[in-house]
Amino acid sequence: MSTELVRYAVDSGIATITLDSPGNRNALSRRLVGELVNRLERAALAAASGSVRGILLTHTGSVFCAGADLKEAGARGVEEGAQELVTILRTILTVPVPVTAVVHGVARAGGLGILGACDIVVAATGATFAFPEVRIGLGPAIISLTTLPRMSSRAVSRYYLTGESFDAAEAAACGLITVAADDVEAALAPILAGIRLGSPQGLAVSKKMSAAPLLARLESGAAGMVELSSTLFTTAEAKEGMAAFLERRTPSWHLDA
User: Fold this and answer.
1) Which of 85, 91, 178, 256 has the greatest count of CB atoms below 10 A from its CB?
2) Is the distance from CB of 124 to CB of 58 less than 8 angstroms?
3) Half-sphere exposure of residue 33: CA atoms within 13 angstroms, side-chain side
4) Torsions phi, psi of 140, nearest 5?
């Protein structure tokens, strides 16, 4: 049995990269991050030869990605984890082919940052999304680099500040995802068919143009957001928030309505 946390397969010009660590909700552990970046780079090399025209990023289990692996965060260093997330986002933005993500269930925190970096996102109507950082003493620092430009300003204010969950229809309406669909495969079909019709040069140039604003924001803001994220994780509030989350209890600052 394979022990890979991120699987890779190519069919008809589409490289499918599957997050396969359902036991920790596809959280961004060091190992998963390393394998994900490796698979993206592998697809980029295949794209250079013309054998891959697009990447499909999907997942097993009910969670696309839960964000940072909080159990690892303290042990391996917060700054290292923040830098790794930046690497994932930069790699998605710079691969020379479109990256289409599929969400069948839950996406949270860093997982939303990944969706923001992807060129196209298709989600099942039952999928849910949230920026829970505010509820554990943190903020959506690094992921703001790819989600804030995608979303309407009113949606950013509401969901960054409340941490509340929202559905796929709302995610599409505010710009976080591309399509909310009852039938994900049917929604994907014309998208992948269109990508397969693109020439390698045309796809590379078009991808570079469409990703340029997000990439520029990432390159100019990443250092500051890594520093902010690293600082926030060391505060008393964040330590209490993460402990409460892992212990499944209410944090000390909670106010009853």
Assistant:
1) 85
2) no
3) 23
4) -75, 65
Residue-level pLDDT at 77? 66
* Helix, strand and coil percent figures for the chain, each rounded to 5: 55, 15, 30
Q: Which amino acid is at 131?
A: F
Residue 1 lies in a domain: no
Question: In whole angstroms, what is the distance from residue 212 CA to residue 93 CA?
Answer: 8
State the residue range of the domain holding 30.
Answer: 6-182
Return mean pLDDT, the chain: 95
| Amino acid at site 128 | T
pLDDT of residue 162: 97
Residue 65 lies in a domain: yes
Look at residue 254 in the predicted model and tell me its pLDDT.
Answer: 85
**What's the length of the chain?**
257
At 107-162, the pLDDT tens digits run: 999 999 999 999 999 999 999 999 999 999 999 999 999 999 999 999 999 999 99
Residue 76 lies in a domain: yes
Q: Which two tokens stand for residue 170?
A: 């709302």
238 domain residue, yes or no: no
- Say what the pLDDT of residue 143 is: 97
148 closest CA partner among 219, 51, 50, 214: 214
pLDDT of residue 57: 98
Low-confidence ranges of the chain (pLDDT < 70): 1-2, 73-77, 257
User: Going by C-beta distance under 8 Å and a sequence separation of 6 or more, which residues neighbour residue 167?
Assistant: 125, 126, 127, 128, 129, 180
Count: domains in the chain: 1
Q: Give just the sign of the alpha carbon dihedral 64, 50, 201, 84.
A: positive
CATH (domain of 24)? 3.90.226.10
Angle CA 16–124–164, to nearest 5: 115
Global pTM reads 0.95
